[in-house]
Amino acid sequence: MTDVMHNFELFQPATLEDARAILGDHQDAWILAGGMDSLDWFKHRVKMPAVVVDIAGIPDLHGIREEDDGGLWIGATTTLTEVNESELVKSRFPALAQAALHVASPQIRNKGTIGGNVSQDTRCPYYRDGFPCYRAGGNTCYANTPTAMNREHALFGVSRCVAVTPSDTAIALTALEAVFTVERAGSRQDILASDFFIGPAIDITRMTALEPGDILVGIRIPGKWAGSRQYFEKVADRQTWDFALVNIAMAAKMENGAISDISMVCGAVECTPRRLTDVESLVRGEKPGQELETLVKRVASRGAEPLNFNHFKIPLMENLAVRAIRSLA
Ligand SMILES: Cc1cc2nc3c(=O)[nH]c(=O)nc-3n(C[C@H](O)[C@H](O)[C@H](O)COP(=O)(O)OP(=O)(O)OC[C@H]3O[C@@H](n4cnc5c(N)ncnc54)[C@H](O)[C@@H]3O)c2cc1C
Ligand code: SF4
To answer: What does the pLDDT read at residue 186?
Structure first.
């Protein structure tokens, strides 16, 4: 059956108002943006929605503009290439530009949107192959058994499901304390990044706060970290076309050679982007250097509970935290 999609009714609204009306009429409709995650699901026939609403042609959801506080607003259907190539993003939030650049391949970045990137589902191979696990409504986790393939899975925050967040831009946006604007039942809500990405203990069937029928309209990055020192690094099995084994994003402010403020986030170690608050508290007020790096290495992975085949993520995470701090020296 692979590569043969099921039949569905496709709507291509040209306005947000029309999209809202269609979604109101079809409670189980699937939102399609660039389709780079969705079409995989459809081709494998693991998800077969009867109605698909393609939002890529709605002008209000697209583009990058400056905000009064020095921040930026990025429409949900802005492509990853547009994010990566934007001078505004590169000059103010280079960590996000780098994260967008490190997603998948040029073809996928040309089509894939930032809204789709942060809303995409997990890459756990059991779940994506249609195994009836907890996340799919079943009563077991196939990735958390002694012989399971779990080298890509979580070190933290496990609650039945051990899948991790797959999105590269989510890590940078969380470090930059972005706010997600969601249209729900006719009204708009602003959701902080720390609340937008949700773990299995909150709802095992979703990776984000988006509920059926919700439209992610755009993402606002406040001016707080604009122009600060920023860092993004991703380690994957391949340099391109691959998801992170661990990635890291950091924004920091320096005063007289010392770190005055910092936000550091790791991805692919938990179901949600993991803010490294222990590292942040440790380094605030300190000068980067060998001594600080040794301490950072000690605390970065504190609390990690590895599975059978993902122990390697612990030193990876520690070394990425050290390299981020070293970039400030
Ligand atoms: C080979 C391959 C490699 C990849 N590698 C990476 C990688 O390295 N890093 C990475 O981060 N990702 C990767 N991806 C995942 C993903 O396809 C892309 O990141 C892409 O950005 C998804 O965006 P899209 O617009 O195509 O999403 P779509 O497939 O259109 O949507 C994805 C999900 O988000 C929902 N959605 C989309 N937009 C909205 C909206 N505005 N409001 C509400 N819901 C919405 C859809 O309903 C769907 O559930 C890869 C994908 C492939 C196929
Ligand atoms: S890790 Fe989560 S998604 Fe994967 S098999 Fe276990 S419950 Fe399912």
So the answer is: 82
